[in-house]
Amino acid sequence: MSVLEKFSRKITETAKAAAKKSGDLVEVTKLNMSISAEEDKIKKTFAEIGKLVYERYNKGESVPEGIEGFCEKIKGYEENIKEMKEKIYTLKNIKICPSCNAELEINANFCSKCGMKQEKEKTEEEQEEEAPTNEKEQQ
Ligand SMILES: [Zn+2]
After folding, report:
1. Contact 30, 24 (CB under 8 A)
2. What digits encode the pLDDT tens for the residues 73-109?
3. Structural domain boundaries, residue 94
4. How many whole angstroms from 87 Cα to the centroid of ligand 1?
């Protein structure tokens, strides 16, 4: 075998090894992606389990021991979200249709999306008039 032949064989072997190596790396990358996909599915399924348990908690049904605290936490987070959404509605001067959740102008009488008649927003005066007067009656 000539020096040139030896040299070219060596190059071919190196190229083959490199190709195998890069093929293996591609395979490893693919497998890692598949693992991530499975892990995502696990996370989503855990979330589904959590939702089911939380629904039971909300209906007043019994939940497994040690779970109540987590449900209370979620309840708190939901209340925070509700408060923040109400702040946004005030800032944007809108109200939400109780039937279809469409954003409506604060003075709208009917929903522009589903047509539901809207309760009039009470003024502070009207609310004061409706305030219970039991205290005065008792005194
Ligand atoms: Zn509506």
Report:
1. no
2. 999 999 999 999 999 999 999 999 999 999 999 999 9
3. 80-119
4. 20
**Residue among 79, 82, 111 at smallest CA distance from 95:** 111
22 and 51, same domain (yes or no):
yes
d(CA 61, CA 67): 12
Residue 110 DSSP code: B
pLDDT in tens, 24-63: 999 999 999 999 999 999 999 999 999 999 999 999 999 9
pLDDT(133) > 70? no
Distance 119 CA to ligand 1 centre (A): 12
Q: How many folded domains does the chain comprise?
A: 2
Q: Are residue 49 and residue 11 in the same domain, yes or no?
A: yes
Distance in angstroms (rounded) separating the CA atoms of residues 26 and 14: 18
The rounded Å distance from CA 103 to ligand 1 centre is 8
